[in-house]
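Entry 14. Structure prediction run on the chain below.
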Amino acid sequence: MRVSNVTVRKRLTVALFVGILTFLIIDVRLGYVQFFLGDKLTDLAKGSWSRNIPFQPKRGEITDRNGVALATNISTPTVYVVPRQLKNPADTATKLSKVLGLDKEKTYKEITAGESMVRLKGGRKISHAKAKEIRALGLKGVYIGEDSKRYYPYGKYLSHVLGFTGIDNQGLMGLELYYDKELRGDEGSVKFYANAKGERMNDMADDFEPPKNGLDLKLTIDAKIQTIMERELDNAQAAYNPDGLIAIAMNPNNGEILGMSSRPNFDPANFRNVPQEVYNRNLPVWSTYEPGSTFKIITLAAALEEGKVDLDKEHFHDPGFAKVAGARLRCWKAGGHGSQTFLEVVQNSCNPGFVALGERLGKEKLFSYVKNFGFGTKTGIDLQGEGSGILFNLDKVGPVELATTAFGQGVSVTPIQQVAAVSAAVNGGILYTPYVAKELIDPLTKEVVMRKTPVAKRRVISEETSKKIRYALENVVAKGSGGNAFVDSYRIGGKTGTAQKAQNGRYLENNHIVSFIGFAPADNPELVVYVAVDNPKGTVQFGGVVSAPIVGNIMKDSLRAMGVQPRKDQIEKKLKWTDTPMIKVPNLVGMTKSELQEQMVNLRIDASGEGDIVVRQSPEPGIKLKEGSTIRLFFGKKE
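Output returned:
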């Protein structure tokens, strides 16, 4: 059948229209893909081609208050493998294993496991020397990524406070954990591109996304004071072989911790080498025990604030014991102290005298002060694992419990609670929250991102009462049981403590925690130091014998490091027969050498300079030195 021309033209028109419409749709689609989806599809393609080699951020440094680095970082390369790029996996495994000291079979399984990228387990945080060896091998598909490892330049120094990090630089303990989010930063990477076969696409440039480093953490710790403290604890460890040691130094006027240490301690870089209970327990904030006589400061504060005692005018007779509800509570001194003022009760740490003060106060009033000073609750220090201590329930406190609490027995407290409470007793009456972290700082801009300021919880006593406490406790050091903490030319106050340790409901024999808490200068305290020694061996277990001299040594060097000037207005020390007599340094400036020979002063002279006239001396006149000490004289010529 013959088709008409009209029909042919119609069919051609339809075919043409369909063709044009089809090409139009294709063009529109291509245009949409090209102009609207192009970037998205390219990014998706790049995503499927890309491989990332991570670059770890630099973890923020931890420094002391003066910028001394206490925890920092060292560069440690890490080995990455892209399995699809390996030309000869067996040969690669052999060579890597030889350099890294790994098992060849395990390495081979690891790099042929089908992953797009493998971080070699035995190739993490390796030395730069080994990284150089691996680069020199020129192995296809093997890359060296930048990593870092935490470094503690002072080893065991401040270990419980600083804590430590894990293999991935994550904080695991101490400040490293408490401030982990701020310290760790954000990961960066080098991104390169590979085709479907895993082969590197050399025509596409690598992308580098730099890591964002963590914030630096500045502490309230003073490295000079911490060093002095660590030295004295090492000496005590060697001298007494105790079961444990605790030391805290704090600024009583704001709660800043200036030093904190304990024994046993550990090296943060090798924490796995010690038992878990050693590194998990920061004893100054974790441990709880009966405080002993250091707790008498709280009883004294309550009695003075409530007007229950006049230290100088009132007298108390101590027969060596106090009878309370049928119980016989003994004084540490056999036979007692006899008749004494209440100032001497404090100086002598007389238990019966403090029993009397407790009875005058009554249980409600005494325990209200105990709780107001912060005992029974956590201080809120920014360290993990803080204990809260144990107090008697008030409805279970009878006459005996009241009496023993008054002299520090039967209650359980933490060292940090004692330091915070005694600081409040001597600083004018304000209880502060202790803290260790001072600032978080951006390492690039040096901008302070976070700054902690002192937190005053409440007033616990008046300034007048605080002044009386300082006076009494300065007498304890100059004339009483704390004499071994006395430091020439520095006004120091303090209190001894000797507490029996309990086990299974019974007190242990010849096993005590002996302590001393001191502060200086006594009229305007800038430093409080607490030291506790757990079961010292080979010595009389008294706080005044063991702990007081440790605190005295820490105080002496710390005050000098802080720039606190020596004073001439000390309370005269009551000398024991074992003490070396003290001599007040005379004014020798202006004297000739012949005149010096006429001076009847038992002091050694270290002379320097030319001439016959003393033009300068050190120390200055009025400072007290032990007999036989050395003074330095500078000679010049008469003008």
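The domain at 223-561 is CATH 3.40.710.10 (Beta-lactamase).
Filed with the rest of this week's runs.
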